[in-house]
Amino acid sequence: MKIIDLSDNQRNEILHQKVIEITQFLNNGGVLAFKADTVWGLGASAKSIIGINKLRKMKLREKNHPFPAYIDSQETFLKLSDSPWPDFTNALTKEFWPGYLTIVLPFKKEAAFLSEAADGLCTLGFRIPKIDYLRSITRQLNCPLVNTSANITGKSTAKSLDEIKLIWPKEQLLIVHKSTDTKDVSVPEELPSTVISINNSGYTILREGKINSSLLDKVLNVVKK
Questions:
Q1: Which of 123, 99, 126, 114 is nearest to 36 (CA)?
Q2: Is residue 99 classed exposed, middle or buried when 0-12, 13-18 and 19+ CB atoms within 10 A define those classes?
Q3: Are 186 and 160 in contact (CB under 8 A)?
Q4: CA dihedral of residues 1, 43, 92, 213 (deg, nearest 10)
Q5: CB hemisphere CA count around 136 (13 angstroms)
Q6: N- or C-end of the chain: fewer Cβ atoms within 10 A?
C-alpha cells in the first residue's frame, strides 16, 4: 500500500502533481482508500471496468448492487443526469451540495459508461462531496469517482487507516488522506449521506442519514409554491 498526503499546507503545484498521480492510478484500474466526509471509503474510476470489478471483489458484493458516484460540480451533474423534475432537483443541489445528499436519477445516453457502476440499471446515485481533494480527483479524472464504504459487505465500516490495512492486507491500495486532519487518521462515528430518488411528485428516501425529511420538505415546499 502507498499513502499520499493531500494536506493543504503543501504548495499547489505539489498537490496538483499528487492528484495527477492518483488519477493515473485510477485510470489503470486501481482502487483508492480515502478518508471521506462521513466514513472511510473505497473508490474507482467510473470508466474503469477493472477498478469497479475490484471494488465488488473486495467488498464481496453480489450483483445488482449499484455503486454511487462522486462528481465535482453542478455542471457535471447536469451533463450526466436526466431528472424528471429539474426544478426540485436543482433546488436540492443548490441547498445541500457540496454535502451529505446522494440523489438517484436516470443518467443520459451520452453517459452510458456509467452502466457498469449502475450494475445494469439506468439510474445512479450522484453526490458532490464536501472534501475538496475528492472533487479535485474527479475533476482531473474527467469522470465520476465510483465509491463505497470501506468494509466487507455486512460488516462494520473501517474507521481508521489501521483497520483498512487489517481488512485488506494484500490489496495494492492507494491510500489518500490529509495528515493534518487527525493524528491517528481516524473517522468518528457519523451518519452517512442521505440517499433519495426523485419523482414527478417529490422524492423517496432510500436511506436516511445526515439530511432528514423535514429539511428536504422545506426545499420541496418552496419549489411547489
A1: 99
A2: middle
A3: yes
A4: -80
A5: 17
A6: C
- Specify the number of domains making up the chain: 1
| Residue 186 per-residue DSSP state | B
Q: How far apart are CA 90 and CA 44, in angstroms?
A: 27
Report the mean per-residue pLDDT for the chain. 91
Give CA 35 to chain center in angstroms: 11
pTM: 0.92
pLDDT band for position 188 (cuts 50, 70, 90): low
The DSSP letter of residue 198 is E
The CATH number of the domain holding residue 133 is 3.90.870.10
Cell triple for 159: 474507521
Q: Which cell is 90 given?
A: 436543482
* % of residues, the chain, pLDDT over 70: 95
Domain hosting residue 89, numbered range = 2-224
Alpha-carbon distance 37 to 33, whole Å?
A: 13
Look at residue 125 and tell me whether its pLDDT is greater than 90.
Answer: yes
